[in-house]
Design the sequence.
C-alpha cells in the first residue's frame, strides 16, 4: 500500500469534517476520491500532506508519517488549485519549486514539456489561463519524479477541452505506472480514469472498491404481458412497476421460457447503475 | 539552503522588493540631502538646524549616522511592509501551501524565508550606505568642502542599522503570519510604526509609566539605539536609553517576533 489511513479524523469544534476514514491506495493505481463538495476530500488530502494535523487516527504515506520531508519528497501534489507567484513566469515558478524540492533545475524543462507548456514557459503566471495554471500545477507536482501524485480537483474551473486534456494527462501518467490519488466530484471523470474509488460523504468513507464493484451487477429488465405470470415463471425476479428485474445474464434462456409459457415478451434490455446513481444513493446528494 | 535559494529567487524577481527599496532610497536622499542642501543654499526655514549642523549632517564622514537615523521610523516602516508582504502574500496566492508540500520541514521553509529576507534587508542597508556615501561626496564636492571618508565608527552605526532593520523585519514577519494575509499585516504594522508609538509618546508626557514603556517599545528601542550611535535630527530618534540597553531590547524583539512567527507557522494547520 502506498497510502493507508486508519480512523483518520479531523474535528473543528464539535463538527467532524473527516470522521474515522480508513482508506488505502495501492501502488500503480489511479485512485478516485469521490464526494460532494464539502464532504471532507480536501481535508483528508491536506492531512495526507501534513498541512492539517488529524485530531485522531493515523495515516502513512509511502510508509512515512505525513508531512515529513521523507514523505513529501516522494509525493507531488496539486491541492485546490495551483499556488504560484503571479509575477514570476511559469518557468521561474517551477525553478523556485525545484529549488525547494532539491531537484536540479534541468528537470524544469522536462516537466514543462510533459504538460505541454514550453510555449508559454516565459509568460507571467498571472497571464495564464485557468487550464494553463492547472497544468503548471501538475508540472510542479511532477518535479522530482514522485512515487505518488495527489491531484485535488484538477479539472476545477476548466472548460470541456481543458478537462479532456487533464484526463488525457492523468491517463498518460497512469500508463507510465504512476500512482495517482485523484479527488473529484465529477463522476464521469472518475469513472473514466480510475481503477478504484473511495466515496466520502459527510466526512465518512461510505464505500471503497473498484468502479465495477461499486456499480454492481447488470440486471435484465423485462417487459412482458402478463407481467404477473412472467414474475411467477422467473425465479428471483423482482417486480418494478410494469417491468421485471432479473439478476440473470442469459437473456435467450429467459425469453425462451417466457415464450413457451405463452407470455408476450415486449422488451428485454440490460440495465446497469451508473456511477452517478450509485454515488447519489450513497451520499444522498441529488 | 534550497529554501533560501528559492525564496531569494522569488524575492529578487518580485517588483515589490525593488519598488520598496527604491522608495526608501529616494526618501533617504530627499530628506537626508536634497532638502538639507536646498535649506543650506537659500532656505528660509532650516528646521531649527544651524548651518553648521546642516553641513555636518551631509558630510561623508557622518554617513553612518545618516543611514541609521532614518531607520527607526520611516525606513523601519518600509522594511516592515516588505516583510509583511513577503510573508502575508503567500497565504493569498496559495504559495505557502505549495512551499509546505514541496519537501522541507516547516521550520526549514520558514528559515528559508527569513534567510532570504535577511539578505534583502542587508542589501537594503548596504545600498542605503552606498547611496548616502555617493550623495554626501557629491554635496561636499559641489560645495567645495574638505571631506574625509567615514572612520571605523561607521561599522557601529551600520551594525545598529542592521539590528534595527532586523527588528522591523521580524515584526513584519510576525504580523504576516499572525494575520495570514498581506493587507491587515501591512495596515497594522504601519499603524504601529508611524502612529501608535507616537501617540503613546504623547500620552507619556502626561503619564510617567507610559513614558517609560514607550522607550522600550519596538520603535522606541530602535530610536534609542539610533540616537546612541550618533543618529539625530530625524523623527523617531531618541536619546533616553543607552545603546546597550536599546540593543538588548531589540535583540529580544527579534527573538520574540521570529520565534513566535516560526512557532505559529510550524504548529498551525494550513487550511
Sequence:
Amino acid at each position: 500500500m502506498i497510502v493507508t489511513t486508519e480512523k483518520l479524523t479531523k474535528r473543528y469544534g464539535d463538527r467532524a469534517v473527516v470522521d474515522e476514514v480508513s482508506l488505502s491506495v495501492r501502488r500503480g493505481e489511479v485512485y478516485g476520491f469521490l464526494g460532494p463538495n464539502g464532504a471532507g476530500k480536501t481535508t483528508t488530502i491536506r492531512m495526507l500532506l501534513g498541512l492539517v494535523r488529524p485530531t485522531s487516527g493515523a495515516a502513512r504515506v509511502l510508509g512515512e508519517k505525513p508531512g515529513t520531508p521523507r514523505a513529501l519528497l516522494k509525493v507531488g501534489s496539486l491541492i485546490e488549485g495551483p499556488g504560484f507567484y503571479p509575477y514570476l513566469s511559469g518557468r521561474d515558478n517551477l525553478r523556485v519549486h525545484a529549488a525547494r524540492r532539491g531537484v536540479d533545475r534541468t528537470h524544469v524543462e522536462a516537466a514543462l514539456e510533459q504538460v505541454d507548456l514550453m510555449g508559454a514557459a516565459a509568460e507571467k503566471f498571472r497571464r495564464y489561463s485557468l487550464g494553463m495554471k492547472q497544468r503548471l500545477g501538475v508540472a510542479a507536482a511532477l518535479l522530482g519524479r514522485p512515487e505518488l501524485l495527489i491531484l485535488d480537483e484538477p479539472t476545477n474551473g476548466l472548460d470541456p477541452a481543458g478537462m479532456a486534456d487533464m484526463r488525457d494527462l492523468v491517463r498518460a501518467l497512469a500508463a507510465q505506472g504512476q500512482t495517482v490519488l485523484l479527488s473529484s466530484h465529477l463522476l464521469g471523470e472518475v469513472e473514466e480514469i480510475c481503477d478504484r474509488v473511495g466515496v466520502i460523504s459527510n466526512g465518512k468513507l461510505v464505500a471503497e472498491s473498484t468502479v465495477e464493484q461499486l456499480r454492481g451487477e447488470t440486471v435484465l429488465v423485462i417487459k412482458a404481458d402478463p407481467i404477473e405470470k412472467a414474475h411467477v415463471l422467473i425465479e428471483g425476479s423482482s417486480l418494478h412497476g410494469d417491468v421485471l428485474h432479473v439478476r440473470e445474464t442469459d437473456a435467450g434462456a429467459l425469453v425462451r421460457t417466457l415464450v413457451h409459457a405463452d407470455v408476450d415478451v415486449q422488451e428485454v434490455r440490460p440495465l446497469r447503475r451508473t456511477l452517478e446513481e450509485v454515488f447519489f444513493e450513497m451520499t444522498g446528494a441529488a | 539552503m534550497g529554501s533560501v535559494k528559492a525564496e531569494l529567487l522569488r524575492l529578487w524577481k518580485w517588483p515589490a522588493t525593488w519598488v520598496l527599496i527604491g522608495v526608501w532610497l529616494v526618501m533617504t536622499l530627499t530628506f537626508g540631502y536634497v532638502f538639507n542642501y536646498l535649506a543650506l543654499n537659500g532656505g528660509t526655514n532650516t528646521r531649527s538646524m544651524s548651518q553648521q549642523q546642516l553641513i555636518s549632517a551631509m558630510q561623508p564622514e557622518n554617513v553612518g549616522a545618516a543611514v541609521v537615523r532614518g531607520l527607526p521610523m520611516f525606513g523601519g516602516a518600509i522594511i516592515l511592509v516588505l516583510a509583511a508582504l513577503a510573508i502575508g502574500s503567500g497565504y493569498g496566492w496559495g504559495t505557502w501551501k505549495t512551499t509546505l508540500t514541496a519537501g522541507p520541514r516547516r521550520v526549514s521553509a520558514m528559515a528559508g524565508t527569513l534567510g532570504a529576507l535577511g539578505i534583502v534587508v542587508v542589501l537594503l542597508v548596504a545600498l542605503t550606505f552606498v547611496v548616502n556615501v555617493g550623495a554626501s561626496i557629491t554635496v561636499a564636492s559641489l560645495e567645495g568642502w574638505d571631506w574625509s571618508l567615514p572612520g571605523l565608527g561607521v561599522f557601529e552605526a551600520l551594525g545598529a542599522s542592521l539590528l534595527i532593520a532586523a527588528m522591523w523585519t521580524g515584526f513584519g514577519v510576525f504580523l504576516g503570519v499572525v494575520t495570514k494575509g498581506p493587507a491587515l499585516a501591512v495596515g497594522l504594522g504601519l499603524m504601529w510604526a508611524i502612529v501608535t508609538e507616537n501617540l503613546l509618546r504623547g500620552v507619556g508626557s502626561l503619564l510617567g509609566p507610559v513614558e517609560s514603556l514607550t522607550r522600550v517599545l519596538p520603535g522606541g528601542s530602535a530610536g534609542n539605539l539610533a540616537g546612541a550611535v550618533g543618529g539625530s535630527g530625524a523623527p523617531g530618534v531618541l536619546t533616553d536609553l543607552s545603546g546597550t540597553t536599546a540593543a538588548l531590547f531589540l535583540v529580544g524583539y527579534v527573538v520574540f517576533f521570529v520565534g513566535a512567527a516560526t512557532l505559529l507557522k510550524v504548529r498551525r494547520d494550513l487550511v
